[in-house]
Amino acid sequence: MAMSNHANGGASSVPGSALEPELAELFSALDRKLAAEGARLTLRRWMDRAEAWRIREALRQARGNRSAAARALGIGRRTLYTKMEKLGIQPRWDAGNGAAMPPNGGSFASRA
Question: How would residue 17 be classed by pLDDT, with cut points 50, 70 and 90?
Fold first, then answer.
């Protein structure tokens, strides 16, 4: 019979859910740095930062292609757009001084 999370010290039975020692060290170091600066992050803020980092990384790897980034993240393209808006992530070509430029020097003209 399987033990409950409470009975086995809170360890999860979900494969891959254990925190790797390298990540635990990284998170602890970040927490200490923030505490030294007088900043504390709520769980929601930690999650937002991690999600924003992962989205930016996927966009970087996909060279700004949001469809490819969404596929790599395992989410729908609309979900990616919503998360980008919520987290304040702008497409690289739209991050300028209000002058949105299409990626790769392309055109905004419709293809009829």
Answer: low
